[in-house]
Amino acid sequence: MTALTSEVSEFITRARVGRLATADATGQPLVLPICYAFDGRVLYSAVDAKPKRRAADDLARVRNIRENPKVSLVIDEYDDDWSRLRWVILQGLADVVTTGEDFAAAAELLLSKYPQYRAMGLSRERGTMIRITPQRVLRWQYAS
Amino acid sequence: MTALTSEVSEFITRARVGRLATADATGQPLVLPICYAFDGRVLYSAVDAKPKRRAADDLARVRNIRENPKVSLVIDEYDDDWSRLRWVILQGLADVVTTGEDFAAAAELLLSKYPQYRAMGLSRERGTMIRITPQRVLRWQYAS
């Protein structure tokens, strides 16, 4: 785990979406948009509250994390005014939480950040939650 | 290479940004926002026209692609109205083009899609261009 500056923490907390890259055991990456909540230390993303074509356990991102816990998450917003571009990348390790206190706390954070999850009835009891523990922070800002 | 439907092609052509995941030989992914141009077959992204802290050759994404050509690119737009969410993911292979006809054609496409590159003097002659050849297309749309 790595300590995040308050500026990075605010940026991560404020953003609504990130893109998470996992990779399978053969090194094939897979990148997906995710909604996430940040508790000041780790990030959580629910994988089975939104409609999916398969069971959560079978989702490629979960399979990848079980094969290889190394992940990368980028948080950025695109703007055609490139002087406004910036990104934060978290290089870290992911694992899967399915129930318990950490699960409940993560669900609470997600429900409070995304009212959309309330209508979907995101469970505070059990489900499939990806936990991302940042180990390294990369930052970039357009410098003209 | 895989054939893309016209709907997917249009979606890819219209979007202004994608997030590209590469992975190094140890399976550590790295995901970055990229601007890209699509020629109907492959995608190109310039890596040295925007200010960077290091020489392009040394950039982690280029180093990763040289170690492991497998990449993943997601194209999506976030919306708090989740019924509007959709994404297209291209699983493919990347290589690096530094000069020649393909390079010139790619630079032309980028200059036409992003006027920002004109002010920066993106070269049509030589540079570092990532070429992504899609091999598999994944699509998702929110189904309520």
Any overview of this molecule?
2 copies of one chain form a homodimer. Chain A has helices at 6-14, 60-67, 101-113, 116-120, and strands at residues 18-23, 29-34, 37-38, 43-46, 70-76, 86-99, 126-141. In chain A, 24% of the residues lie in helices and 38% in strands. In chain A, a hairpin with a 4-residue loop joins strand 3 and strand 4 (43-46). The longest helix of chain A is centred in the C-terminal third of the chain and has 13 residues, at 101-113. Chain A contains 4 helices and 7 strands; from the N terminus they run H-E-E-E-E-H-E-E-H-H-E. The model of chain A has no long low-confidence stretch (mean pLDDT 92). Chain A has a single domain, classed as Electron Transport, Fmn-binding Protein, Chain A (Pnp Oxidase, Chain A). Chain A is globular and about 45 Å long. The first copy, chain A, starts with 5 loop residues before the first helix and ends with a strand. With 144 residues, the first copy, chain A, is of the alpha+beta class. In chain A, 38% of the residues are buried. Chain A has a 7-stranded antiparallel sheet with strand order 2-1-5-6-7-4-3. At the A-B interface, strand 1, strand 2, strand 5 and strand 6 of A face strand 1, strand 2, strand 5 and strand 6 of B.
